[in-house]
Amino acid sequence: MEQDRFVRVHLKTVYFLIFFSFGGLFPLLSVYLRDVVGLSGAEIGTIMSIGPLMMIFAQPLWGILSDYTQKPREILSVTMIITGGLALFYLPFSVYIVLVIVAASVALFQGSIVPISDSITLNYVHEKGGDYGSIRLWGAAGFSISVLLVGTLSDIFGLQIIFYTFAVSLWLCAYFTRKMPKEGQLPKVQLKKGISQLIQNKQFILFMMTTFFVFGPIFANNFYFGLLIQDVGGSLTGVGIAFLLAAGSEIPFMRWVGYWIDRIGLLKIILIAAIVSSLRWFFYAIEPAPILIYITTIAQGMSIGLFIPAAIQYVRKITPEDVKVTAVSVYSSVGGGLGTSFCTLMAGFLLERFDIFAVYLFFGGLTTLGVITIIVVMRWCLPCK
């Protein structure tokens, strides 16, 4: 029992530090590129989208490597150290093409972090019992605390600090990965057979469309939400407060998502989360006052706090046991990679051609398509609701 408590504390610490690093960098990176480097909207959109685009290829490859070697902890630790170091290369350069290369390099190794962490945690919860959401909520806590703290520090010391907090947090996190559960229980994956199983799994393919439409805007919002706050009159500290409220609201929903899943089912939870997310983006498109943005950030708790735990459990439920890490990585690459890259790139062009409010109108429309695909999944696969 004591050992189990010790492991859970380390899992929570890992999630806290992972998302603390993300919260300190990504919400303010677009602000840094615009206000410090002086890039245009299209250039910012391209740089912000190149990372998710790289993850389309990186995440499945890391998942395959993890399944094949059965050494996810070691892979996780090494990629965290490298990711943190590569992010520091943003600082000495202001040439657009060089920054594209830096973004791609960071994403190549960052692509392993969340999918492998999720797979280790889900496998542990499956064996030992418990609720994934109660562990994953520490990521939301880390993100919300970081974006407020780093936003405030950026107002005082300058935006360059976002890269140092990102690197140090990941390096510290790499230390704690050594105490994560070992993953020797799964059979050795047969790569060709495993990939073939995923490609032929119609439920899996259809659900990937859902993650593209819903996750793309959710993750792209992390890059543009800071610009939204500033364009309605907020400061960098205001950006931090907004993210604190938004990410902090995820915690109670992640804490109780397991109970709600048991009560009404995975796909219904996913549908509710997608509808709330769509309404949120449309609301931001009508140019609301800052106070209304702060008040409605609770919608993030309902959307992300419910969608992420439910979606990842659904993916593991419908995929074969010996390729679950690969399946989670492919799922992450479609939503966090392909969807985010597409949304981020298109948002950059919309920002340059129109304004930030057009960006959120686009997000709302795309998420509505996600709502439709979820309904199709529910009707097509009734036993999996």
Automatic annotation (TrEMBL):
Coiled coil: none
A GO term for molecular function: uridine transmembrane transporter activity
Taxonomy, superkingdom: Bacteria
Gene3D superfamilies: MFS general substrate transporter like domains
Cellular compartments annotated: Cell membrane
UniProt xrefs under SUPFAM superfamilies: MFS general substrate transporter
GO cellular component: plasma membrane
Keyword set, alphabetical order: Cell membrane, Membrane, Transmembrane, Transmembrane helix, Transport
Keyword Ligase: no
InterPro entries, per database record: MFS_assoc_dom, MFS_dom, MFS_trans_sf
Main location, first listed in the record: membrane
Sequence intervals crossing the membrane: 12-32, 44-63, 97-116, 137-153, 159-177, 198-220, 232-253, 265-285, 291-315, 327-351, 357-382
Membrane topology of this protein: Multi-pass membrane protein
Keyword Ion transport: no
One Pfam match: MFS_1_like
Domain Major facilitator superfamily (MFS) profile: 203-385
Protein's name according to its UniProt entry: MFS transporter
